[in-house]
Amino acid sequence: MKYLITFSYDGSKYSGYQKQPKKRTIQNELEKVLTKINSNKKVTISASGRTDAGVHAYNQKAHFSLDNEFDLDKLKHSINSLIPDDIYIKNVTKVDDDFHARFSVKAKEYIYKINIGEYNPIEKDYIFQYNKELDIPEMEKALKYLEGTHDFKSFVKAKDIKEDTTRTIIKAKLIKDHNLITISLLGTGFMRYMVRNIVGMLIEIGEGKRKSEDLIDILNQKDRTKAGMCAKACGLYLNDVYYE
Amino acid sequence: MKYLITFSYDGSKYSGYQKQPKKRTIQNELEKVLTKINSNKKVTISASGRTDAGVHAYNQKAHFSLDNEFDLDKLKHSINSLIPDDIYIKNVTKVDDDFHARFSVKAKEYIYKINIGEYNPIEKDYIFQYNKELDIPEMEKALKYLEGTHDFKSFVKAKDIKEDTTRTIIKAKLIKDHNLITISLLGTGFMRYMVRNIVGMLIEIGEGKRKSEDLIDILNQKDRTKAGMCAKACGLYLNDVYYE
After folding, report:
1. For the segment A7-41, what is each residue's pLDDT rounded down to a tens digit?
2. Cα angle vertex B116, ends B113, B118, to 5°?
3. Same domain, B77 and B154
4. Residue A162 maps to which CATH number?
5. Are A86 and B124 a contacting pair at CB < 8 A?
6. Which ipTM score applies to this complex?
7. The whole model's pTM is what?
8. A8 touches chain B (CB under 8 A)
9. CATH number for the domain harbouring residue B12
């Protein structure tokens, strides 16, 4: 039986999503628990994509197969009772054999949280502590330029480029709630560090180091060295994954 | 020179505020840094009160004396540059010799955060994960009964009673924002576990195990065994301390 889980996690205590020997990773923890549930027969899971160390998820998705058929709600509770409390299974469904949590993805939403108010030690692992004003209207203009289909080569490290770097950003927006700024990027796919590199450049636009129009040049130059810094992992959340 | 600092901290990584040998405590960290700033001559600080392990603070206050006079802003930056990043000095002022961060307190506000929505692993150390509905109007009625001057003996462990257990709650309120409930208690003084014991009982009222009127009996009985459970530390914040 093939199952799809929706789960959230606090990435601050993990060396990222992906399995790594001798490291605490989300995938390691999930596979340990699922293997136990599968009468100790090894279970491998496939997520919608990896998240890096320190990055969080509200609705990550992954599929796996178990030898037996389980009641979905009982399976959810079994996993949650065995998994560390900084990971939480929100939902379990059955999926067809040809479903793949990564290859079937139609769109993904990432959000990035920035505190422009006073430094807050309580949220330092969950919201990027920028702690200064940002030019919000200029950042919003830049977000508009991001929407559409572009070659995002300037936002990917050369060594991470394995394929075509063209992606579509369906919606790019910014929400300001008091001192909390949330940037949301909904797109067909994202490459490694792409969101953090885009946010890094948006921050440089927000602090007046660049103009929003510079984004057009940067996209055209297709050169990572032309774009800005990479924003810290702590503010980033995989917010949702969409299938058909 | 006598100084007063206002500071915030993430209590989840500390064995409480108060100095303890071989434990990581807020007071230990602050005294280490202040002693260094005071040319390695031992500095002792006095806070408005202790907070227990796992309890956070947005505006804790403490006084201490240094041999030399410092520019206030520079002193703030010096402490922040040396202290772990889960503690933050928000403000430094000079105070008179007869000021005492604990004995001069006129009122304190504690807040307690409860998530009545789905379990959220990302906020588990910062918001109590109750994850079920609560009867808010009934809890609000109980909060009204708390206001005024009462003997709070039913909300203090017998072994912690050293003195008169009468205190005044100036204002007791509840704010609901989507699935986040924040209970705020403003009072002249609080004894150990008093806020968490009150919140524990409010939760039992919210889940229908007790009625709001029961609170009057419980206060009258002056017996810890009559009141409810002690709420978890993670939801509690020392929000503010008021002087003259």
Report:
1. 999 999 999 999 999 999 999 999 999 999 999 99
2. 120
3. no
4. 3.30.70.660
5. yes
6. 0.91
7. 0.93
8. yes
9. 3.30.70.580
